[in-house]
Amino acid sequence: MIRRLLTALGAGHTRPVHVLLGLLTAAALAQGVAFALLVPLLRALFGPQPGAAWGWLWLFCGVAAPAVVLTFAAQRRGFRVGAEVARRLHHRLGEAVVALPQAWFTRSRVGALTRVAGEDVLAVMSLPAHQLRPLVTAVVTPLAIVVVVLVLDPLIGVSLAVAAPFLLAVLWMSNRMVARSDRGRDLAIGEAAARVLEFARAQPVLRAFGRTVEGHRELDTALRAQRDADRRMIGLAVPGLVSFGFAVRVVFTAALALAVYRFLGGLLDAPTTIAVLVLVGRITEAVGTGAETGATLRISGNALDRIAEVLESPPLPEPDQPRMPTGNVVRFDRVGFGYRPGEPVLHDVSFTLPDRGLTALVGPSGSGKSTVARLIARYADPQTGSVSLGGVDLRDIGTVERTARIACVFQDVYLFEGTLAENVRIGRPGADDEALDRAARAAGLIEVVESLPHGWDTRVGEAGATLSGGQRQRVSIARALLARTPIVVLDEATAALDPENDAVVGAAVAELAARGSVLVIAHRPATVRDADQILVLDGGRIVERGRHEELLATGGWYAGFWERRNHAAGWRLVPGPALPAGGHR
Length: 585
Ligand code: ADP
What we know:
Layout: H1 2-9, H2 15-36, H3 38-46, H4 53-99, H5 107-152, H6 154-201, H7 203-208, H8 216-264, H9 270-292, H10 294-312, E1 330-340, E2 343-353, E3 357-362, H11 369-376, E4 384-389, E5 392-393, H12 399-405, E6 406-409, H13 420-425, H14 433-442, H15 446-451, H16 460-463, H17 469-483, E7 487-491, H18 499-515, E8 517-521, H19 525-530, E9 533-538, E10 541-546, H20 548-554, H21 557-573
Parallel strand pairs: 3-8, 3-9, 6-7, 7-8
Antiparallel strand pairs: 1-2, 1-4, 4-5, 9-10
Helix pairs in contact: 1-10, 2-4, 2-5, 3-4, 3-9, 4-5, 4-10, 5-6, 5-9, 5-10, 6-8, 8-9, 14-17, 17-18, 20-21
Bound molecules: adenosine-5'-diphosphate.
């Protein structure tokens, strides 16, 4: 467990834990020695010269006092190291998360990450703060005492030494039983928590369709599974926990019986017998307390496993010697990609984005449009073929260089805690107010800023809830405009929802395309019609490519798509017969 903690902390950050372990060991050793001094003390007290006991008493105080001071110091340091461990783990998790490929961030993993960074780090923090002390005491103090008993009465000493592996075996077995039940219970709790969340999120839909009763069913099943797992845990854990306590008492009773037997046989004098009994009692107590931390220790162990899983997830590899792209042409060369083995999403996709102009990506839902966009942003690497920028494979370009050249405007716009201005400045942290205003104007964000009571200084925490999906997307577009990257990847999906947003996105796309290369997952007919290049994706393959007129003339998927678009547009504006082809809106 300690080794796993040290690994999680990373090289160069293990010293505080080592120092703490040293302090704890010294404290436990001093405790053991202090207890051992009871033997000569008792012997002197019951011997022919009881006055000699004073000397031993002073020596006892001389050892016990440092033991108390060391324990106090170790306890204080334990809290400090706990805080340091938490800080370091957060840091390491942050570093790991930054380097993880975007494909790692599935919905369930993001949920789990919240738990890892919160609850699990807290659980590991209590390892140095609370759990190490009883654990070290449970091992070191009995060891010191056993050594003393070995000297006093080798037979009892040897029996205690022999009992140690027996106790350890019982402890190991009981731990395994409890851990097995814990794991099953963890899964059941996770499932139940996910169902409760889902049930809460689904309320608007369930209520809208009057399905409040059926909506319960999955939740009920999950809760029942959790109850069953709880029962199983009690069934497995209780014998596990009881068996160790029982074994400790068996050892204690055996040592007691042996001491009495040897005293009655005249092989042990009275003071030594009393001392041995006191020492055996102390061993039992130390081991018992250590075992009691077993439950919390297991929780920390499981937490540590989950943290290690995140830390050990393979990061998106950074090139050892990054190469500089020449120019900003993006090329897909026979790219094959799938999120899961055996389930390819893109097949043999090849195309080129020139360093200027608008490329529209269209195709049925699920055809792989977003996946293409993600590969350009290197959210993941293709399994076959390559994606290159300026003649260099994306894998050979450093992250800093890549992000300086490619900006993404995706649907799920994340707004950080901070002011609206700070949120847009993420695009280019040093941008002045004028540049900020210009970007906001082009992104249609300025109207939003002006309507807010504190303008640019409005905290997104307050405004986040009041910003609509379209307005959030404008923040994202403004970021991209401000960043002035030569390549922008944009997903218009939500933008086409209302006419006002439609116009804003249209203008922004035109501006971006005039100064660089833009790849748009297009939904607005105007974007598609005006594109310099249209790529039609179907089933993960590019099935058609060309300009609007060329594709209409082929009468393929695109021609049908255009027909349907116009039909829909016609329906919206003029209830009645559809407008003729080409006359959208
Ligand atoms: P589009 O953008 O054209 O709707 P996507 O690129 O989002 O298509 O999805 C293409 C395919 O990849 C779909 O079958 C989808 O289920 C799958 N897919 C998308 N994202 C993921 C993901 N993170 N993990 C697993 N499969 C995914």
